[in-house]
Design a protein that fits this description.
Elements: H1 13-43, H2 48-51, H3 53-75, H4 78-94, H5 96-102, H6 105-132, H7 139-147, H8 150-164, H9 182-216, H10 231-239, H11 242-263, H12 265-271, H13 276-300, H14 306-326, H15 330-343, H16 346-355, H17 360-372, H18 376-388, E1 399-400, E2 403-404, H19 405-408, H20 411-426
Helix pairs in contact: 1-3, 1-6, 1-8, 1-9, 3-4, 3-6, 3-17, 3-18, 4-6, 4-9, 5-6, 5-9, 6-7, 6-17, 7-13, 7-16, 8-13, 10-17, 11-15, 11-16, 11-17, 11-18, 11-20, 12-13, 13-15, 14-15, 14-16, 14-20
């Protein structure tokens, strides 16, 4: 890489700052939702597999809406796509108000599903928009920089979830919640669902403010005036592009590994007798480490080929995850936390490598495939939950070769990291 190549032109600084705020906003949604798996499990007395529907709804929305979002953005503009995304984001978050009144788990899942329709629009627009806002030579580095603001949203989201949800759940304060009579349970359930509701409703109102800011702001021109290729032709080109297809698969594994390591940190902690609030502190550290790892990775990309750096990070992630499986206790938990550093550059780097050789038209459609790949965050945690529930609803009902089922379930992220390392190896030129 030519070190003299500018990351960003001065005239694009303010639009880029506004754009990067979106990365923090969807980071917040991701982080505040992860602990809800454990919260809903406790409040509504769900199994791990049933509670995993939270992630199925959240990340499933990406899969369903990414391609329609890309087609819409291609027809209109990145800015219009962002406005639609913010509108859907706010709508899904505000649906938590009637969901809490109904006290129905499926209603909350619908809210999350619609919310991620909005996130699909935002990520489909913002990621290629960041790549396009400057020289092609620094595109991957620029996206990594923009994505560096994502962990700030993660940290804030987790703080809100921990301080204003997990700490206030009455059901978590009762050692034998299941043994309570139905009247007492219903009173606690009503109160706890209101606690879960509040951060989402406030978030929805904040998103409406951001919507107004974007609506009145002047953003760089981004609409293709001349669409030479049909969508069908572009898709045909993408399907035969081996690097792009491998990138989509790598992205599914990337998001799957990330969500597994973050969501089930609570179950890992539960196995070693650490409560949910305390486990939240470990996840907070994981997000801080994730932020540091991305900042370090963005700097290293000035000197190290993106494919090589992706490979090195993935290999070390494998070692840390294996340690978390074998070493049970606080040491293992700390190793699981440490994995976040080496997951940090995966998403933007895979994104940049996958779209690196595509033109603007192809990138808009290609971006949809990479956002659809976020469905890995729905499918793989669900599979991990099934593994955890093999022996029963607890996290350590049975052991295999001395390893508890919760620890054993983290072999799934290792499989993901192996593929990511291989993808990095293929892009080390």
């Amino acid at each position: 890489m030519n070190k003299s190549t500018r990351l960003l032109s001065k005239n694009l600084l303010l639009p880029f700052i506004l754009l990067t705020s979106l990365f923090a906003l969807w980071g917040f949604a991701n982080a505040v939702t992860d602990p809800m798996v454990q919260a809903f499990k406790k409040v509504l007395e769900l199994s791990n597999t049933q509670a995993a529907w939270v992630q199925m709804a959240f990340y499933g929305g990406y899969f369903c809406m990414a391609l329609p979002a890309a087609l819409f953005i291609r027809r209109y503009s990145y800015k219009v796509g962002i406005l639609i995304g913010l509108g859907l984001y706010a709508t899904g978050a505000l649906l938590f108000y009637p969901a809490a009144i109904s006290e129905e788990f499926w209603f909350f899942c619908i809210g999350l599903y619609i919310l991620t329709f909005g996130l699909a629009f935002l990520e489909t627009a913002a990621n290629p928009y960041a790549l396009a806002m400057g020289p092609k030579e620094t595109a991957t580095q620029r996206l990594n920089f923009a994505q560096s603001f994502n962990p700030l949203g993660l940290i804030l989201g987790l703080f809100v979830a921990q301080q204003y949800v997990l700490k206030k759940l009455q059901s978590d304060d009762i050692s034998d919640y299941n043994a309570l009579d139905e009247i007492s349970k219903n009173l606690i359930k009503t109160s706890d669902l209101m606690v879960i509701r509040d951060p989402y409703v406030i978030l929805g109102l904040v998103i409406l403010v951001v919507f107004v800011l974007f609506a009145v702001s002047k953003m760089p021109h981004s609409k293709d005036d001349d669409l030479n290729d049909s969508v069908r032709d572009i898709i045909k080109k993408l399907i035969v592009n081996k690097n792009y297809v491998r990138g989509v698969i790598a992205q599914a594994f990337c998001v799957g590994a990330q969500i597994m390591c973050w969501t089930y940190i609570y179950q890992y902690a539960e196995n070693i007798k650490i409560d949910s609030v305390s486990a939240g502190y470990y996840q907070m550290v994981a997000f801080v480490i994730f932020f540091v790892g991305r900042a370090v990775g963005t700097y290293l990309l000035k000197y190290i080929n993106a494919g090589n750096l992706l490979k090195y990070y993935a290999i070390i992630a494998i070692i840390f995850t294996l340690g978390a499986i074998i070493i049970e206790g606080v040491t293992g938990l700390c190793l699981l936390v440490g994995v976040s550093f080496f997951m940090s550059i995966n998403f933007p780097t895979i994104y940049g490598l996958s779209l690196g050789n595509l033109n603007n038209e192809e990138s808009k459609i290609g971006s949809a495939g990479l956002i659809m790949a976020i469905v890995g965050g729905a499918l793989m945690p669900k599979l991990q939950a099934i593994i955890i529930d093999i022996g029963g609803y607890a996290v350590n009902d049975i052991r295999f070769l001395g390893i508890s089922e919760i620890n054993l379930s983290f072999f799934l992220p290792i499989i993901c990291f192996i593929y990511i390392a291989k993808y990095g190896l293929r892009n080390n030129q």
